[in-house]
Amino acid sequence: MQQEEVILLADGLHTTLAVKVPLLDDQGQPYGICGIATDITDRVRAEEVRQQAGEALRRSEAQLRQQTQQLKQTLADLKQTQAQLVQTEKMSSLGQLVAGVAHEINNPVGFISGNINHAEEYTQDLLKMIALYQFHYPNPVEEIVEAVEAIDLDFLVADLPNLMSSMKIGAERIQEIVLSLRTFSRMDESEMKEVDIHAGIDSTLMILQNRLKKQPDQPLIEVIKNYGKIPLVECYAGQLNQVFMNILSNAIDALIEGDCEGRIIRISTELVNPNDIVIRIADNGCGMSESAQQRIFDPFFTTKPIGKGTGLGLSISYQIVTEKHGGTLQCVSSPGNGTEFSVTIPIRQNQTAEPTLEESLD
């Protein structure tokens, strides 16, 4: 029988490996024990040291893995922050450019619009004067007859009012575009204010109008609006317009790249309860897989070909809606059934949201 035993000697405790054999008499009864003990104290201590070293090594390896994971996360966060800074700077530059262009256009257009009404009145007065001359002097001199034929006076008299009307319509159209540009940029509204959500959506659609209309290399995309009766919403208008821009741009890309008939974007708004509104933007494109849908708001994830998307638009949009406005941004999609984004935000902000990356840069 072999076993380890701890014994006390003069220099302290020792561990021995003892082998004991019982001594039996003629009747087979034990009357004693014969054994030998080997001192294995050094070996046991060496094993304890080895185990302690192994445990320390395991703890060190675990700590190193944790530090490595933290470093990877830190690098990923830095990469995301850097990309968001670039994207935010682009959007800020776009807003400044739009606001600057709107301001520069507004002055000359205002001058034209302010004077075109007078020009229209003057034109009508001159035409009436010509008609009076023709009535009271039906037989003009030869020189006037030749001049009338040269300028085709009858056509001029008939077409000039149409010309002035077209110019007036054009000036009014430019004024609408300028107003939409200013509404979209909201550069003078860095604070949270009550705004008309429908005006923000309409201004965004105005900016994207060139991508919606039919072109030689691009089909027509129809926009169907179903606006509900909603109150003014307390929000950061410029940043919320960026959300609409990102979602609508993605919908347009999906419809252009997809192979579907009757390309349509549907936009609806409604009051879902006394405190919240929802904005739904849906397309009838090809949709996306469940795996893509689960990652759609992840930074740097994109379903677009390489070089056509940064993967940051929806990520930043999610941050704007959830962190800046205390709302929700959801995506529902499936292959062949299009995609719908739902933006739900409170009508009033009961508490100040934590500042985000975009707010800190404003």
Question: Quick gist of this model?
Answer:
With 362 residues, the chain is an alpha+beta fold. The protein has helices at residues 41-136, 142-151, 153-185, 197-207, 209-212, 237-257, 290-294, 313-324, 357-361; strands spanning 2-9, 12-24, 30-39, 193-195, 222-227, 233-235, 264-273, 276-283, 328-333, 339-346.
Describe the model.
The chain contains nine helices and ten strands. It is of the alpha+beta class. Strand 7 (264-273) and strand 8 form a beta hairpin. It folds into three domains: 2-39; 80-185; 189-362, Histidine kinase-like ATPase, C-terminal domain (Heat Shock Protein 90), CATH 3.30.565. Helix 2 (142-151) packs across helix 3 and helix 4 packs across helix 6.
What labels describe this entry?
Heat Shock Protein 90; alpha+beta; rod-shaped; 5-stranded mixed beta sheet; 362 residues; 10 strands; 54% helix; 3-stranded antiparallel beta sheet
